[in-house]
Batch of 3 targets.
Target 1
Amino acid sequence: MQASSGRKDESSFRDYAAEARGCVPEFYRENHARQTLEFVLEKKAQYLPLRTRRMGVWEAFEALADLVDDSDPDLELPQIDHALQTAEALRAAGAAPPMVLTGLLHDLGKVLCLFGEPQWAVVGDTFPVGCAFSDRIVYPRFFDANPDARDPRLSSRLGIYAEGCGLENVHFSWGHDEYLYHVLRPHLPPDCLDVIRFHSFYAGHREGAYAHLEDPRDAARLATVRAFNPYDLYSKSPERPDFAKLRPFYEALARELLPPVLQW
Ligand code: FE
Ligand code: FE
């Protein structure tokens, strides 16, 4: 632990038991009680036509300026700082330009908060709905309050899915990952889209739960997410990146890979 700079060593990130900000357990209590299959299908029908707003990447960051993520035990900085820290860590490691841009954009789906969604429907770890909740999801006891956990079909091992159906065919708890995946799907390469779509699926990419739903391509998808994860997690630092200095580089990168205006 480098106490002087305020940075934490790797073992202390995502330490929910010891260092969680006070709001984190309350966040997951509500998230786990309310993320049902029905809720997820409703949000997909509402948002995935992508007719809520048209805006560019920088407009989205400006809109997110004041959002602090209640589910994150490690970070109380604005989203743009976390975005730049992640992207800069990837750039320093020599990642390909689309993956550096993915580092910058990976949490931009949190604009859902600006559209009126509560944080429990935007941020936090994601997990499959429509089948049994794994006890390897963070705070599993909070699923006792989820109506799907009392539905015999939705609480069975496979639920509404077939064995090996593939993660791309599974409905995940609604939030910024799935939403941004759909926004960027026409524009980024598959490995970047996998990172965006599954980066909060810790029960899968870290704990190995839900292997019975994976198809043969999912091992590679989750390996890509795992490779990205340290840049997301361990780049978190209270030192604020110099946005003004970095902005021209990232503007050029975004211009190269994305249209000036995106459908949200
Ligand atoms: Fe995220
Ligand atoms: Fe992140």
Target 2
Amino acid sequence: MVEAIEQLQTEANEALAQASDAAALEAWRVDFLGTKGRLKAMMASMRDLSKEERPAFGQRMNAVKESLEVAFESRRSQMDSASPSLPPMDLTEPGMPGRLGQRHVLTRTIDEIVEVFARMGFSVAEGPEVEDEWHNFNALNIPEDHPARDSSENFFLGAGRMLRSQTSTVQIRVMEQSPPPLKIMTCGRVYRPDTHDATHYSMFHQVEGLCIDRGVTMIDLKSALFQFARAYFGPEAEVRMRPSFFPFTEPSAEVDMKMKIKGRWQWVELGGCGMVDPNVLKAVDIDPEEWTGYAFGLGIERIAMRRYGISDIRWLYENDERFLRQF
Ligand code: FA5
């Protein structure tokens, strides 16, 4: 009898080692440990033993049963960890398309604007967003009592610091550092406590241009703006200048560009421009008798909105993927 039990245990262990998947393992369990399995059948043969032989046989069978149950559990957990219960992989199924990120429509507009002005011979300058009043006002010929200096028009930070309200600050920084002739442009953020609506935001971007040389005139200014308009908005774009006032240019003008919006040609106001005021040149030790120059500053959001048909500036800052993915 003992040999028969040992024989069964050896067979069971060998069969278990060969069970290579969950189905084979289950078949093994049914065959050896199941209610109609081989262990149960051998247990039943206890009937044929004498009363004295039965306890030893029973104990032996229980030990075998326990050891097979332990072996079964360990084989099962071995299989589970080797192949976690994931659905089988279908290699013929089409893959998930990778989603590439893209530049924000404003970043793209800035890159396009820089490229156009670079082709026109402007070099790119930069300036800080946290400024002082000298660069934001004084050097730009903006007097102490000018309404543009009001605290309701600016973000003052204390200790003479503020968030710049215009990129014209970069004109001063460049002229302080480099002697003329100069032909520079800059793109950057500016800040004003304007109420948010479809065309205004409290943080927006401007593109600023400055050209200082001998004999520069309004014709050069209009030509530069005209070339930009044609290069950026298309060969039929036009430029119009309306008389205006800025403390740092004399004469000054508002710049409008004519562009096609939804199939119709329209004039759109984009910014300001003019001939650099002699007082600004004097503030940075440039002789206005020898040098003249022009400057312009355009709103980049307004340009992007026109170019890409965006009717509300706030969408540019909401980071809604459904909006951003369109460009
Ligand atoms: C200026 O900021 C002058 N520095 C421009 C300039 C530069 C004139 C050099 C002369 C020489 P203005 O405040 O008009 O100008 O602003 C220029 C443009 O910025 C506006 O035409 C508009 O396109 C944009 N802009 C102004 N305020 C906002 C705002 N709250 N939200 C979005 N865009 C604005």
Target 3
Amino acid sequence: MKKENVYILGIESSCDDTSAAVLCNDKILSNVVADQKIHAEYGGVVPELASRAHQQNIVPVVHQALGKARITKDQLSAIAFTRGPGLMGSLLVGTSFAKSLAFGLNIPLIDVNHMQAHILAHFIDEEYHSKPPFPFLAMTISGGHTQIVKVSNYFDMEVLGETIDDAVGEAYDKSGKVLGLGYPAGPEIDKRSQLGNPKAYPFTKPKVDGLDFSFSGLKTGILYFVQRQTKANPNFVKENLNDICASIQYTIIGILMDKLKLAVKQTGIKHIAIGGGVSANSGIRKALKEAEKKYGWTTYIPKFEYTTDNAAMIAIVGYLKYLDQDFSDFDVMATARLKI
Ligand code: KG4
Ligand code: ZN
């Protein structure tokens, strides 16, 4: 007997991207993301503005996702939404919308942990992307997260280490602010790094035990360095921007790779998957490719649109939970601090 197709609508609204995706089994039919340009003016995400923009975006984004997937809402099997972690005002918009729609259509509601979703995005069926075998190590690196997770099965995950202060993307963005770059600064620092000398200015790596990370000291170190140099030469940043960027990137990638190497040593697991906006970074991609040759690792990088915040990753978790009939009650609450 032919199995019936499962259609999941995924909804993501944990931070500053409103996204809706439709998936048929493990294949993505549509993945619509409305980002919020408004935050660039403020140099970071303003929670109240994010929440309001989600309210404006959610209906058109869902409508577009269904249209692009060429299905009607009556064909949906279930609705998956981000329960947390994230900004409360943002999460509430997606949560209430998902609940109302699932209730109205009388179909199951599935709550999804955003951090699990970044990892399980690797299980979206895509040409040219192989799925990591269990167990593997996942490193989630973005503007909001920095974690190393041991993944033994879809829903059997253990956080081995995480940041004790800023996320790695914040380290990029805050350093960029010191250098007068726009927000988010990660992509520009990355671009300039490729034109500069990574060893021009040695910045100190933080000393943090085990597999935890810390990035706030680095940001302060860069600020003091720039202040000192600018006193001696007011044009210092302008004249040396590419070298400064390359040195910052070299330090950050060094920190990430040191922790990954330690995680491999501790667990003996050599399959490494990354996710989150910073996985677009050319430095981390190059370092991972080198580690394949040097240490015999196998590395997995998802398609760019599934690394930043998106609803496709929420929908794939929805699909995996649907197969387990793991549905939510309608009184499920958005939760700003949700552990894996
Ligand atoms: O996953 P994401 O879109 O949103 C969340 O923060 O969850 O990640 C955005 C972060 C920003 O901090 C941005 O500066 C950083 O990812 N980013 C990069 C690059 N592209 C984006 N950082 C370094 N190099 C890049 N190429
Ligand atoms: Zn995220």
